[in-house]
Fold this sequence. Notes:
The protein has about 280 residues and is of the alpha/beta class. The chain is about 40% helix and about 20% strand. It has one domain (about 1-284): Rossmann fold (3-Layer(aba) Sandwich), CATH 3.40.50. Helix 1 crosses helix 9, helix 2 (about 55-65) crosses helix 3 and helix 8 runs antiparallel to helix 9.
Amino acid sequence: MCTVVVTVVTSGASLAHIPRRRTGTLSTMDLGDPRAFELFLEIYGVLPRAGPGSTADTLRALSLVPNNDIKRALDLGCGPGAQTLVLAEALPEADVLALDLAPQMVVEARRRCVDAGLGDRVQVREGDLLAPRVPDASQDLIWCEGAIYFAGIETALSTWKPLLAASGAVAFTEPIWTHPSPPDELTTWWRDEYPAITDESGVRAKVSSVGFETVGFFRLPASSWWDEYYEPMDTRVRQFLREHPEDPVAAEIAAEAAKEINTFCRFSEFYTCGFFITQPVGEA
Length: 284
């Protein structure tokens, strides 16, 4: 699984102003820097999925959703649509609306849905996960794999709560610590990338603080990080460097991707993503 990961030597150029994509969580890529974002998407925009996860994870989380009569589902921060397809196929009676801010991701997700013959039930649009523009009390299920950290759990759940129909649920993934004493090097790295990272109990507390309860939970296994995310990313980084020789911005983006993979290979026993299935209190 974790073997040799490409090492990138850069010219020393800094991308401090560029938000970096972390652990499938897009942690900081500046959409105002078109050249850097274009290069960024040449790595992250062509992967099977936009972060850790798998078909099995999506289906397992869906099985933990209490409401079995889902007619309308909202997939926020859908990326290239990997989980969108799984949801649409597993919920044949549901209409699915998938939103992402990145036009390139929207194009890819829409292509996948059309190719799968799901274009009649799945709409893919550009949109903000905090402003999905759907009526109140209209959604039986809100799904957010690898993107809730953009807004913060409390802000996102508070914003989405009015959109839920009776017995509606919100399912999301979030990076969590799995060990009480992670190494200093790792905590420093996460502090730079996502200071809000906490453990399962910390996420549950955030969920409770805004009137939700956690009705289902599991940890993503290491294979969910590697098989459809880091392994293809490692291959893509190598190709990307051959395509962009002598480009300091490309080299820095590749270096960040390689560092992310190496961090996971070295420290995967200390962190993962948790899948949380939640409902407003009193709906379960």
